[in-house]
Amino acid sequence: MTPETHWIVGPGALGRLIALRLAGRVPVRLVGRRRLPGHQTLITPEGDTLARSLDMARVEALPAETPAVVHLTTKAHGAEAAHAALATRLPEGVPLVLWQNGFACQPRLTERHHGPVLCATTTEGAHVQADDRVTHAGHGHTYLGALDGRHRELAGALARTLTAAGLPAETVDDIRVRLWRKLAVNAAINPLVARYTIRNGQLRDRPFRPMVERLITEVAAILSAEDVAPPDGNGLEGWRQLVWQVVEATASNRASMLQDVLAGRLTEHEAILAPLLAAASRHRLPAPCLAGHLDELRLRAAALAEPPAAC
């Protein structure tokens, strides 16, 4: 990639992780609604500290420059509004990378953005400790690709840049399938840990294990109808193995949806559950467990939006 500045829009855990890793390789500007401390510290999975000074900017006061690429790292429910706020400030042709969970905003922003759009799906884990500190909770892997299969050279260059910065990445032609696979895992794990405020590993035990199994069964049927197979192609058993492998590998983790609940923020329930339920409706498949979780999380979101009662 050319050495011009990478804009990272959305200074949450993932955004700051990417910014702090990339800053050793390319110029970086971290963009958000409020200005964070310019000196940021990353706690690595090995327990080391990586401290860097980052250029900060607010969306309303961006510098007059053309970025090499814009990484959109907001939560899924904020991605389209963030893009709309940026769109008038970006020259046509600037590449956009979408790092959102789920499969909701990606098709719409791919059509809307006036330039190349790549989607990223990652297993990198991170959480915020403070305004100036973020923890890289576990090493992962990132896949990059365009929904229409284009822009392979761009994706390859970006993958090399991320890999050199300590975030292993590779290009794929089937990013749509990989987004669905990650959505499937998130749908089987996140609603439960969010609703019951538990760590991932607790899903292995009763009463949660049967709940996970019911979600896996519903998700497997929906994705089979969508012609999306698990990595080993082994139907329901393949989805079961994938989900439980992730649970084991992240047993001590607080899933991102649980982090949002604990922080009193909106969760990504619409981006993760609504696409599956829309597909279930298209194929006339029952999905009562998925629907029940979405209803509960929508009620929580509505309560967050309500103004406090007068004294």
Automatic annotation (TrEMBL):
Residues 174-292 form the Ketopantoate reductase C-terminal domain. It comes from the Bacteria. Pathway: Cofactor biosynthesis; (R)-pantothenate biosynthesis; (R)-pantoate from 3-methyl-2-oxobutanoate: step 2/2. Keywords: NADP, Oxidoreductase, Pantothenate biosynthesis. It catalyses: (R)-pantoate + NADP(+) = 2-dehydropantoate + NADPH + H(+). One of its GO terms (molecular function) is 2-dehydropantoate 2-reductase activity. Its EC number is 1.1.1.169. The keyword NADP applies. The keyword Oxidoreductase applies. SUPFAM superfamilies: 6-phosphogluconate dehydrogenase C-terminal domain-like, NAD(P)-binding Rossmann-fold domains. Residues 8-148 form the Ketopantoate reductase N-terminal domain. InterPro entries: 6-PGluconate_DH-like_C_sf, 6PGD_dom2, ApbA, Ketopantoate_reductase, KPA_reductase, KPR_N, NAD(P)-bd_dom_sf. NCBIfam families: apbA_panE. Catalyzes the NADPH-dependent reduction of ketopantoate into pantoic acid. Belongs to the ketopantoate reductase family. PANTHER family: 2-DEHYDROPANTOATE 2-REDUCTASE (PTHR43765:SF2), 2-DEHYDROPANTOATE 2-REDUCTASE-RELATED (PTHR43765). This is 2-dehydropantoate 2-reductase. It comes from Halomonas gemina.
